[in-house]
## 1
Amino acid sequence: MQADTHTGYGLAAGRWLFTLSTGRPGSRALWFALLVLGSWSAPLFASDPARPNMVIILSDDHSLLDSTVYGSKEVQTPNMQRLADSGMTFDRAFVASPSCAPNRAVLLTGLMPVRHGAEANHTRPHAGIKKLPAYLKELGYEVVAFGKVSHYNYTADYGFDYFAHDKFHEDVAIPEGVKWLRARSSDKPLCIFFGTNWPHVPWPATPEGYDPARVTLPPGHIDTPRTREARAKYYAAVTRMDNDLGLILDAARQVLGENTFFLHTADNGAQWPFAKWTLYDAGIRTPMIAAWPGKIKPGARTDAMVNWSDILPTLVEVGGGKPPADIDGKSFAGVLRNGKRKHRDKIFATHSSDGQYNIYPARSLRDGRWKYIRNLHPEFYFSTHVDLVQAEGYFGSWVDKARTDPAAAAVLQRYHQRPAEELYDLRADPNEQKNLAADERQAARLKAMREEVTAWMKANSDQGRVYGKPRLLDDPRRDEPPPQAGKARPGANPSPRSF
Ligand SMILES: [Ca+2]
């Protein structure tokens, strides 16, 4: 990318307006400036008559810290870095739910899971909800998808003009999508989604150049040789994602030209303990980079808090439309356009379940500093594919080490058994290791955040529904994997613990 050679349109126009408005108060120049400013508010980028092409790139199960853009010195992500260098990096972007299907449905409906209905992983949203492709088609766009954009078999429900290669780890999706793009002849504005399945498991069979001895494990993990080997393979998977991103960026810039809006983000955190399927930041805080040569200042960084539900209305506004008012998402185009520093004060997130592997409903509220998590059923035993399938081959080494190592045993205990409430000071404890819910000094804060989550659930008719048959802490068979991969079904709905 060569965006650094372009003058930011917003910056240039801003300087121009500043120059005009430095006339004496009441001067004609000032009034003219105000008039122009007023006319700028809608539609966005009104001075650019063309609807930009849009390229949306989704990675799968990628935790934010595992990229150079967010500070990693170990994982190589040069293509994320060059996209970030040419656009705006979001330091506080969040998914609405930390697993694939619920959160991808948030992207494609602008609604939170409790409203779109795909609360459990591997489920589809309610029929009849207007989807993202429909909004963009109304604006004249051709809307296509390659790879994992919604959730495998449900892609057809979303109304893309064309989609292909949406099966599990159908890794030809990205090169095939690039080939399609290079062969395209339509002059319609294009919104193309690319969903790489990397770095979702199964990770590559070898570390592909990463040295297991040199990886850094996240705080709160158990250090074993098998964990290090798996971590290095995960890094290899991240770099495969980054390679896919590079293919897309190169082709899109060549084929679609300068007036192209790019957005790259990940659907949820990586498949590690305390990440995917959890409401810790490793599960919900997600990489997000937007670039638009000449429109978004290169190398910008923002701490405005945004949520995945905000992407749909943002794309509608970038495409020249009016963002819908009856959804949960709110357009953050103003953050892109002029560096507006704030977007949301609070981020709510929800998690329900994943087949018979994980049935653990939880809700969270996060502001700029504090995180409150409510585990609706602390009597449930927390499990996921990580411990029940062990396909990546390291969790057994955690169990082995916990037999003789009290610190490792404490990690396992924290993994499987969670308290009713958790409260973290993210400024002092960004890795959410010290639960302050029992700290008397935080009693008022805990009460306020508890009440806010209760009110949010009530306002959204959120019943805290349990999907599937939970594993209970006192069940001696709780560690047995399900006989087969199960689809989530509505089960008996025990009352969530009340507050
Ligand atoms: Ca995912």
## 2
Amino acid sequence: MLSDCRHCDACRRVCPVLKLGVPAFPACYETSERSPAVWNCTNCWLCHEACPAGINLWQKKALAQQQCIPPAAIAQGIDNLKATGLVFPFTPELNERRRAYGLEPVKLLDQRKLSLLIS
Ligand code: SF4
Ligand code: SF4
């Protein structure tokens, strides 16, 4: 619960994830900040922009995610991102398949730049 929250519901009314009936970042409501629902957020920040109290929902959500172990699929994406800069798993076969469809090969990020971005 946020002490400066006005309980106006604006953050929830604009959230595209909640509109789909999927639990999302709880903003200021009853859901525990340790809920895995914080990982359903799309980072659109409509809630942050809509908040009339000027609560930094961006920061609150980032803190909530640090306190909550991500679901396995998201954890895998984070590991992939750290390793290659891509959220999906990269294997040489991926570029073989892309070439077969006439697509450019996926270019991996320079490891030095990647570690600077992620650290
Ligand atoms: S940033 Fe997340 S919680 Fe906020 S409106 Fe977008 S999807 Fe919903
Ligand atoms: S928009 Fe801001 S003030 Fe309104 S309910 Fe959400 S967090 Fe509270």
